[in-house]
Amino acid sequence: MKIQTVGVIGAGVMGIGVAQNLAQTDHNVILVDIKEEILDKAKQEIKNNIRFQSLIYKKDKPTNLEETLNKIEFSQNYKLLENADFVIENVTERWDNKKQVYSLIDAICSADCVFAANTSAIPITRIASATKRADKVVGIHFMNPVPIKPMVEMIRGYHTSETTIEIAKNMLSQMGKECVLVNDSPGFVSNRVLMLTINEAVFLLQDRVATAEDIDKIFKGCFGHKMGPLETADLIGLDTILYSIEVLYENFNDTKYRPCPLLKKMVDAGLHGRKNGKGFYVYQ
Questions:
Q1: Residue 58: helix, strand or coil by DSSP?
Q2: 2 or 81: whose pLDDT is higher?
Q3: Which residue range or ranges hold the 3-hydroxyacyl-CoA dehydrogenase NAD binding domain (predicted)?
Q4: What kind of fold does domain 190-274 have according to CATH?
Q5: Fewer CB within 10 A of the end CB, N or C, for the chain?
Q6: Is 153 one of the catalytic residues?
Q7: What secondary structure letter does DSSP report for 131?
Q8: Residue range 164-178: mean pLDDT, rounded
Protein backbone atom coordinates (compact mmCIF):
# COMPACT_ATOMS: atom_id res chain seq x y z
CA MET A 1 0.00 0.00 0.00
CA LYS A 2 1.43 3.38 -0.98
CA ILE A 3 1.97 5.87 1.80
CA GLN A 4 0.55 9.09 0.41
CA THR A 5 0.86 11.82 3.07
CA VAL A 6 4.04 12.20 5.09
CA GLY A 7 4.72 14.64 7.91
CA VAL A 8 8.26 16.03 8.12
CA ILE A 9 9.17 17.79 11.36
CA GLY A 10 12.05 20.23 11.29
CA ALA A 11 12.97 22.39 8.28
CA GLY A 12 16.73 22.36 8.74
CA VAL A 13 19.21 20.83 6.32
CA MET A 14 17.95 17.27 6.77
CA GLY A 15 14.26 18.12 6.92
CA ILE A 16 14.56 20.13 3.71
CA GLY A 17 16.22 17.19 1.96
CA VAL A 18 13.67 14.68 3.21
CA ALA A 19 10.72 16.88 2.21
CA GLN A 20 12.19 17.47 -1.24
CA ASN A 21 12.88 13.76 -1.80
CA LEU A 22 9.33 12.86 -0.76
CA ALA A 23 7.76 15.49 -3.01
CA GLN A 24 9.90 14.38 -5.94
CA THR A 25 8.63 10.81 -5.45
CA ASP A 26 4.97 11.89 -5.60
CA HIS A 27 4.16 12.15 -1.89
CA ASN A 28 2.12 14.87 -0.26
CA VAL A 29 4.31 16.48 2.41
CA ILE A 30 3.46 18.49 5.52
CA LEU A 31 6.68 20.28 6.52
CA VAL A 32 6.42 21.67 10.04
CA ASP A 33 8.72 24.02 11.90
CA ILE A 34 8.26 26.54 14.71
CA LYS A 35 9.21 29.72 12.82
CA GLU A 36 7.82 31.21 9.63
CA GLU A 37 11.23 32.52 8.55
CA ILE A 38 12.69 29.01 8.78
CA LEU A 39 9.90 27.70 6.56
CA ASP A 40 10.38 30.54 4.06
CA LYS A 41 14.08 29.76 3.91
CA ALA A 42 13.32 26.05 3.47
CA LYS A 43 11.07 26.77 0.50
CA GLN A 44 13.80 28.81 -1.17
CA GLU A 45 16.41 26.13 -0.44
CA ILE A 46 14.24 23.45 -2.06
CA LYS A 47 13.83 25.66 -5.14
CA ASN A 48 17.59 26.16 -5.32
CA ASN A 49 18.31 22.45 -4.79
CA ILE A 50 15.95 21.35 -7.56
CA ARG A 51 17.40 23.87 -10.02
CA PHE A 52 20.93 22.78 -9.13
CA GLN A 53 20.12 19.09 -9.49
CA SER A 54 18.48 19.64 -12.86
CA LEU A 55 21.76 21.13 -14.09
CA ILE A 56 24.11 18.57 -12.54
CA TYR A 57 22.19 15.29 -12.67
CA LYS A 58 20.65 14.17 -15.93
CA LYS A 59 17.37 12.33 -15.45
CA ASP A 60 14.95 10.69 -17.84
CA LYS A 61 12.17 12.71 -16.23
CA PRO A 62 13.32 16.16 -15.04
CA THR A 63 11.74 17.48 -11.84
CA ASN A 64 8.94 19.98 -12.37
CA LEU A 65 9.69 22.73 -9.86
CA GLU A 66 6.15 24.02 -9.37
CA GLU A 67 4.59 20.56 -9.18
CA THR A 68 7.12 19.54 -6.56
CA LEU A 69 6.62 22.64 -4.42
CA ASN A 70 2.84 22.27 -4.64
CA LYS A 71 3.16 18.89 -2.98
CA ILE A 72 4.71 20.47 0.12
CA GLU A 73 2.61 22.32 2.70
CA PHE A 74 4.84 24.59 4.80
CA SER A 75 3.29 25.14 8.22
CA GLN A 76 3.83 25.95 11.89
CA ASN A 77 0.70 24.01 12.78
CA TYR A 78 1.47 20.56 14.22
CA LYS A 79 -2.25 19.79 14.17
CA LEU A 80 -2.02 19.18 10.41
CA LEU A 81 -0.06 15.99 11.15
CA GLU A 82 -3.31 14.27 12.10
CA ASN A 83 -3.64 13.61 8.35
CA ALA A 84 -0.21 11.99 8.01
CA ASP A 85 0.27 8.26 7.33
CA PHE A 86 3.94 8.44 8.31
CA VAL A 87 6.01 11.05 10.17
CA ILE A 88 9.75 11.68 9.84
CA GLU A 89 11.26 13.78 12.65
CA ASN A 90 14.44 15.82 12.06
CA VAL A 91 14.73 18.22 15.00
CA THR A 92 17.98 19.25 16.69
CA GLU A 93 19.99 16.46 18.35
CA ARG A 94 18.93 17.46 21.86
CA TRP A 95 16.93 14.95 23.90
CA ASP A 96 14.77 17.59 25.63
CA ASN A 97 13.71 18.97 22.24
CA LYS A 98 12.93 15.56 20.77
CA LYS A 99 11.04 14.40 23.86
CA GLN A 100 8.68 17.39 23.67
CA VAL A 101 8.05 16.83 19.96
CA TYR A 102 7.20 13.14 20.35
CA SER A 103 4.86 13.76 23.28
CA LEU A 104 3.07 16.36 21.16
CA ILE A 105 2.70 14.37 17.94
CA ASP A 106 1.76 11.19 19.80
CA ALA A 107 -1.43 12.94 20.89
CA ILE A 108 -2.12 14.39 17.43
CA CYS A 109 -1.35 11.63 14.93
CA SER A 110 -3.60 8.67 14.15
CA ALA A 111 -3.02 5.44 16.07
CA ASP A 112 -1.68 3.73 12.92
CA CYS A 113 0.85 6.43 12.06
CA VAL A 114 4.49 5.31 12.16
CA PHE A 115 7.14 7.65 13.59
CA ALA A 116 10.62 7.60 12.05
CA ALA A 117 13.40 9.35 13.96
CA ASN A 118 16.05 10.80 11.68
CA THR A 119 18.68 11.03 14.40
CA SER A 120 22.45 10.81 14.35
CA ALA A 121 23.01 9.31 17.77
CA ILE A 122 20.06 9.32 20.22
CA PRO A 123 18.86 5.75 20.94
CA ILE A 124 15.56 4.86 19.26
CA THR A 125 14.35 3.03 22.36
CA ARG A 126 14.67 6.24 24.38
CA ILE A 127 12.76 8.19 21.72
CA ALA A 128 10.00 5.56 21.66
CA SER A 129 9.64 5.88 25.44
CA ALA A 130 8.25 9.40 24.93
CA THR A 131 5.23 7.92 23.09
CA LYS A 132 2.43 5.45 23.72
CA ARG A 133 3.24 3.64 20.46
CA ALA A 134 6.76 2.29 21.05
CA ASP A 135 6.15 -0.54 18.59
CA LYS A 136 5.53 2.05 15.84
CA VAL A 137 8.78 4.00 16.31
CA VAL A 138 11.79 3.25 14.12
CA GLY A 139 15.07 4.99 13.36
CA ILE A 140 15.85 6.12 9.81
CA HIS A 141 19.23 7.79 9.56
CA PHE A 142 19.21 9.64 6.24
CA MET A 143 22.47 10.82 4.70
CA ASN A 144 23.07 14.32 3.36
CA PRO A 145 22.18 15.39 0.68
CA VAL A 146 19.05 13.26 1.08
CA PRO A 147 17.64 13.38 -2.49
CA ILE A 148 20.78 11.91 -4.08
CA LYS A 149 21.92 9.41 -1.41
CA PRO A 150 20.66 5.92 -2.34
CA MET A 151 21.00 4.24 1.07
CA VAL A 152 19.97 4.86 4.68
CA GLU A 153 20.64 3.24 8.02
CA MET A 154 17.46 1.85 9.62
CA ILE A 155 17.45 1.21 13.37
CA ARG A 156 15.23 -1.22 15.23
CA GLY A 157 14.34 -0.05 18.75
CA TYR A 158 13.66 -2.50 21.58
CA HIS A 159 9.89 -2.45 20.93
CA THR A 160 9.85 -1.79 17.16
CA SER A 161 7.53 -4.33 15.52
CA GLU A 162 8.16 -6.28 12.33
CA THR A 163 5.11 -4.58 10.83
CA THR A 164 6.68 -1.18 11.47
CA ILE A 165 9.95 -2.32 9.90
CA GLU A 166 8.10 -3.46 6.77
CA ILE A 167 6.11 -0.21 6.55
CA ALA A 168 9.35 1.80 6.85
CA LYS A 169 11.08 -0.33 4.21
CA ASN A 170 8.13 0.23 1.89
CA MET A 171 8.28 3.96 2.57
CA LEU A 172 11.98 4.06 1.72
CA SER A 173 11.42 2.01 -1.43
CA GLN A 174 8.86 4.59 -2.55
CA MET A 175 11.55 7.24 -2.01
CA GLY A 176 13.98 5.26 -4.18
CA LYS A 177 16.20 4.14 -1.30
CA GLU A 178 17.68 0.95 0.05
CA CYS A 179 18.32 0.40 3.74
CA VAL A 180 20.57 -1.55 6.08
CA LEU A 181 18.77 -2.65 9.25
CA VAL A 182 20.79 -2.49 12.48
CA ASN A 183 19.99 -2.85 16.18
CA ASP A 184 19.65 0.07 18.56
CA SER A 185 22.78 1.55 20.13
CA PRO A 186 23.85 5.19 20.58
CA GLY A 187 25.27 6.37 17.26
CA PHE A 188 24.24 3.07 15.62
CA VAL A 189 26.92 1.90 13.15
CA SER A 190 27.64 4.94 10.98
CA ASN A 191 28.07 7.58 13.64
CA ARG A 192 29.86 5.49 16.24
CA VAL A 193 32.60 5.28 13.61
CA LEU A 194 32.19 8.61 11.78
CA MET A 195 31.97 10.89 14.82
CA LEU A 196 35.13 9.42 16.31
CA THR A 197 36.91 9.91 12.99
CA ILE A 198 35.81 13.53 12.67
CA ASN A 199 36.57 14.32 16.31
CA GLU A 200 40.07 12.84 15.99
CA ALA A 201 40.64 14.82 12.78
CA VAL A 202 39.78 18.01 14.69
CA PHE A 203 42.28 17.00 17.39
CA LEU A 204 44.92 16.63 14.64
CA LEU A 205 44.13 20.13 13.42
CA GLN A 206 44.17 21.51 16.99
CA ASP A 207 47.56 19.83 17.64
CA ARG A 208 48.93 21.30 14.38
CA VAL A 209 49.85 17.89 13.03
CA ALA A 210 48.44 18.92 9.63
CA THR A 211 46.24 21.52 7.99
CA ALA A 212 42.56 20.86 7.32
CA GLU A 213 43.33 20.59 3.60
CA ASP A 214 46.07 18.00 4.13
CA ILE A 215 44.02 15.92 6.58
CA ASP A 216 41.22 15.69 4.03
CA LYS A 217 43.65 15.12 1.15
CA ILE A 218 45.06 12.02 2.88
CA PHE A 219 41.62 10.46 3.26
CA LYS A 220 40.67 11.21 -0.33
CA GLY A 221 43.96 10.28 -1.94
CA CYS A 222 44.98 7.32 0.22
CA PHE A 223 41.61 5.74 0.96
CA GLY A 224 39.50 6.86 -1.99
CA HIS A 225 36.98 8.78 0.13
CA LYS A 226 34.97 11.33 -1.85
CA MET A 227 35.26 13.78 1.04
CA GLY A 228 37.69 14.07 3.93
CA PRO A 229 36.49 14.05 7.57
CA LEU A 230 36.64 17.82 7.99
CA GLU A 231 34.82 18.48 4.70
CA THR A 232 32.23 15.97 5.88
CA ALA A 233 31.91 17.81 9.19
CA ASP A 234 31.25 21.06 7.35
CA LEU A 235 28.59 19.36 5.23
CA ILE A 236 26.79 17.85 8.23
CA GLY A 237 27.16 20.95 10.40
CA LEU A 238 29.67 21.39 13.21
CA ASP A 239 26.89 22.00 15.73
CA THR A 240 25.30 18.67 14.78
CA ILE A 241 28.68 16.95 15.03
CA LEU A 242 29.18 18.34 18.53
CA TYR A 243 25.69 17.39 19.69
CA SER A 244 26.14 13.86 18.34
CA ILE A 245 29.48 13.22 19.98
CA GLU A 246 28.16 14.65 23.26
CA VAL A 247 25.34 12.09 23.08
CA LEU A 248 27.89 9.31 22.57
CA TYR A 249 29.99 10.59 25.48
CA GLU A 250 26.94 10.77 27.73
CA ASN A 251 25.65 7.30 26.81
CA PHE A 252 28.89 5.33 26.85
CA ASN A 253 30.72 7.27 29.59
CA ASP A 254 33.88 6.59 27.62
CA THR A 255 36.61 9.24 27.30
CA LYS A 256 37.27 8.26 23.68
CA TYR A 257 34.13 10.27 22.88
CA ARG A 258 35.38 13.43 24.62
CA PRO A 259 34.63 16.33 22.22
CA CYS A 260 37.70 18.16 20.96
CA PRO A 261 37.99 21.65 22.58
CA LEU A 262 38.56 23.19 19.15
CA LEU A 263 35.24 21.75 17.94
CA LYS A 264 33.46 23.28 20.93
CA LYS A 265 35.18 26.62 20.35
CA MET A 266 34.18 26.71 16.68
CA VAL A 267 30.55 25.94 17.50
CA ASP A 268 30.54 28.65 20.19
CA ALA A 269 31.92 31.06 17.57
CA GLY A 270 29.07 30.22 15.22
CA LEU A 271 31.25 28.42 12.68
CA HIS A 272 28.80 25.70 11.70
CA GLY A 273 30.07 24.80 8.23
CA ARG A 274 28.24 24.98 4.94
CA LYS A 275 24.91 25.88 6.52
CA ASN A 276 26.15 29.36 7.49
CA GLY A 277 29.18 29.79 5.23
CA LYS A 278 32.19 29.01 7.41
CA GLY A 279 33.58 26.01 9.25
CA PHE A 280 36.89 24.34 8.54
CA TYR A 281 36.55 25.94 5.10
CA VAL A 282 34.92 29.13 3.83
CA TYR A 283 31.89 28.88 1.50
CA GLN A 284 30.42 31.58 -0.71
A1: coil
A2: 81
A3: 5-184
A4: N-(1-d-carboxylethyl)-l-norvaline Dehydrogenase; domain 2 (1.10.1040)
A5: C
A6: yes
A7: S
A8: 97
